[in-house]
């Protein structure tokens, strides 16, 4: 795995601006989004990805739920749970982001590594939307891998600051998948689901304690499971200063986290898909630095 790997272009593309976003403070200003894309493009080409087929979404989500959202037949309560009002671009953005994760999954099968510059909508349940998540992109790609017989055991390593409650609920009882979540104990969602392995961290957890959890708890559990494919939700909302997070990692701590994951995958020959997941920092420049650091960690590990 020493050749360059294709990356999937994803949810920061134009339709994301049209999707009726939640309060402005939770999203990067447009100029910083453009700077992030420019930084990524300076490292590797940005590749388009096809929108997800509805048939692939139905592998995971209730068809009646999907049909209602396609038609816009949603309630105010459902819009509040999602985090912004319904419009057709909400559906389109979900399909584009999930399609990019599936394209990155094919990249990883072919080349060892795939990266979606967005994705990680881990709060979507089988039959309801929550937390800015309409479709659960990683579970959709996991189900595709298993149904197609490409792999036998899948690891979903969720290092976003928020527990992947939708992922945990959908995959409850699926012995071929190990769901791991390292998240803030006091963060959304306030009623957690049960993952295969949950590590809930106290407010203010910094680099040293966080990395110790990865080394002393997560790494041995992953080694015992022996996955032959992995998804990595590389949330930047673990950074100190995040508007929706309560942890206190530095950019260097996040880079050390990323290095551990990518080097493990490269060393063990485990195909890996990375999605960016959450990040709402008060300092957009720090967020961009951290996002690009994740790409650099991937390139350093895989060549």
Q: Please, could you describe this protein's structure?
A:
It is a single chain. The chain is of the alpha/beta class and 303 residues long. 43% of the residues lie in helices and 10% in strands. The chain has one domain: Histone deacetylase domain (Arginase, Chain A), CATH 3.40.800. The protein has helices at residues 30-41, 54-57, 63-71, 76-82, 88-111, 137-147, 165-170, 207-225, 251-268, 284-302; strands at residues 113-116, 154-158, 177-184, 197-201, 229-233, 272-275. Strands 1-6-5-2-3-4 form a 6-stranded parallel β-sheet, sandwiched between helices. Helix 7 links the parallel strand 2 and strand 3. The protein is globular and about 45 Å long. It starts with 29 loop residues before the first helix and ends with a helix. Residues 1-26 have low confidence and may be disordered.
Outline:
Residues 42-283 form the Histone deacetylase domain. This protein is an alpha/beta fold and 303 residues long.
- Taking pLDDT < 50 over at least 5 consecutive residues as the criterion, the unreliable ranges are 1-26
The succession of helices and strands, N to C, reads HHHHHEHEHEEHEHEH
Number of strands: 6
- Provide the gyration radius in Å: 17 Å
Count of structural domains: 1
